[in-house]
Design a protein that fits this description.
The protein has 5 helices and 3 strands; from the N terminus they run E-H-H-E-E-H-H-H. By secondary structure, the protein is of the alpha+beta class. It folds into 2 domains: 37 residues; 28 residues, no CATH class. Strand 2 and strand 3 form a beta hairpin. Helix 3 packs antiparallel against helix 4. The protein is extended.
Length: 81
């Protein structure tokens, strides 16, 4: 199991986020008790889709668009904010 303290998350965010991407989740403890989870966004999408079929379809379309290169840069969307 991937369990780290909140202090470890704060001090080593880059490493912890890499673990979450590789292992799909990291459980975060605060004062010795698991309080939070850091999860891969695709896992989150899958969890959300269990409750909302329309959401699942929108994710499928978005992933297909990304694979096909139908994406916009930050600058194209937001300009020079």
């Amino acid at each position: 199991m991937n369990i780290v303290s909140s202090t470890n998350v704060r001090n080593n965010w880059a490493d912890v986020s890499k673990i979450a991407l590789k292992k799909e989740y990291v459980l975060v403890t605060h004062r010795g008790k698991v309080k939070t989870a850091i999860i891969d966004v695709e896992v989150l999408e899958d969890l959300l889709s269990l409750h909302d079929k329309e959401y699942l379809e929108s994710i499928k379309r978005a992933r297909a668009d990304a694979r096909a290169g139908r994406v916009y840069t930050f600058e194209e969307v937001f300009g020079n904010i």
